[in-house]
Amino acid sequence: MTKLSLYDLMQEIRSFTPIDSVSLEKAKQSGINTRNSRKLKSLLNQWISGVYDEDPGYLAQELESLVS
Fold first, then answer.
1. What does pTM read for this prediction?
2. Which residues pair with 33 in a beta bridge?
3. Is pLDDT above 90 for 45?
4. Which of 6, 2, 3 is nearest to 39 (CA)?
C-alpha cells in the first residue's frame, strides 16, 4: 500500500462531510501516515472496503481523534 498521510485522507473525506480547519492543520503538522500509524491504516482499509459509506461523518470523527 502506498503511504498516505492523515491530512491527505482528511482532505478526501472532507468532500463528503465537514472537517474543521483546526483538525486539518493539526493533521498536516502531525506527520501521521499509513506507515507509522496502524489505526490510520485500519481506518483507510475500512474506508476502501465501504464500511463508512453510509456514515462518512463517523470516519471524520475517528480521523480527528488521531490529532485531538
1. 0.92
2. 5
3. yes
4. 6
